[in-house]
């Protein structure tokens, strides 16, 4: 069973996705745990920034598909709530009171790219693989992907990745604005911590600045919360019609 780990380094909270059997794929339980840990971070006034990372040199391969059942009724109460737990976790990361950075190594796929896009800033490995990947497996995008991607990388990149299944590496991600900087793999987490440390020096100010930033530069088009529900029904339909999990 995977888990989310929380460590504190001075005024920096480090949230680690750890599910090595499936390259850090997210389970509903991990989604719930991530939301709870975000509450814990917000409740600690000494924390002024957060870094989201994956264990073992890879960020997040998406949802843990071992829990999926081909043709299952996606509106069934338990199934609906389990997927909702993962989506709510993205939103919870995105509403952390502190500035947030995703340290992306290895792959960020599907739910993994949503998690990365939930943060304020992304530092990526030059060799990282970033792809939406939904249509590749016969699934409509979810988690508000189109909204949170277009606010970061713009319409063109979002269309390329979300509609046409384009994959980019870290260098290209930085070129198109999907990430702030692409660096050698071994430098990703050090740089993320360095940047987070600047904000963490003054936690109270950092929280106020993060609030203003998101209010002024928030998602375009429909709001993120609306996007979660807007995409949900179509994704449920697409998941049910898949022949295999």
From TrEMBL:
Q: Which residues form the signal peptide?
A: none
Q: Which superkingdom does the taxonomy of this entry point to?
A: Bacteria
GO molecular function, a single term: catalytic activity
Which family does the entry's similarity section mention?
Belongs to the enoyl-CoA hydratase/isomerase family.
**Name of the protein this chain belongs to:** Enoyl-CoA hydratase
Species for this entry: Geodermatophilus pulveris
């Amino acid at each position: 069973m995977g888990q989310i780990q929380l460590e504190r380094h001075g005024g920096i909270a480090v949230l680690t996705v750890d599910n090595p059997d499936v390259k850090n794929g997210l389970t509903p339980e991990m989604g719930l745990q991530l939301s709870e840990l975000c509450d814990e971070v917000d409740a600690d006034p000494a924390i002024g920034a957060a870094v989201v990372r994956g264990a073992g040199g890879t960020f997040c391969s998406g949802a843990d598909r071992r829990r999926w059942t081909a043709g299952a009724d996606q509106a069934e109460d338990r199934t609906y709530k389990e997927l909702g737990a993962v989506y709510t976790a993205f939103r919870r990361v995105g509403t952390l009171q502190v500035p947030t950075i995703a340290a992306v190594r290895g792959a960020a796929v599907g739910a993994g790219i949503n998690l990365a896009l939930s943060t304020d800033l992304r530092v990526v490995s030059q060799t990282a693989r970033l792809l939406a990947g939904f249509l590749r497996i016969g699934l409509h995008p979810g988690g508000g992907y189109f909204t949170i991607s277009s606010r970061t990388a713009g319409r063109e990149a979002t269309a390329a990745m979300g509609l046409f299944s384009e994959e980019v590496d870290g260098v290209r991600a930085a070129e198109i604005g999907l990430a702030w900087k692409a660096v050698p793999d071994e430098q990703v987490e050090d740089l993320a911590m360095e940047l987070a440390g600047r904000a963490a020096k003054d936690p109270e100010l950092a929280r106020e600045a993060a609030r203003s930033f998101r209010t002024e530069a928030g998602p375009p088009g429909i709001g993120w919360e609306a996007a979660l529900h807007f995409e949900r029904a179509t994704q449920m339909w697409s998941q049910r019609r898949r022949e295999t999990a």
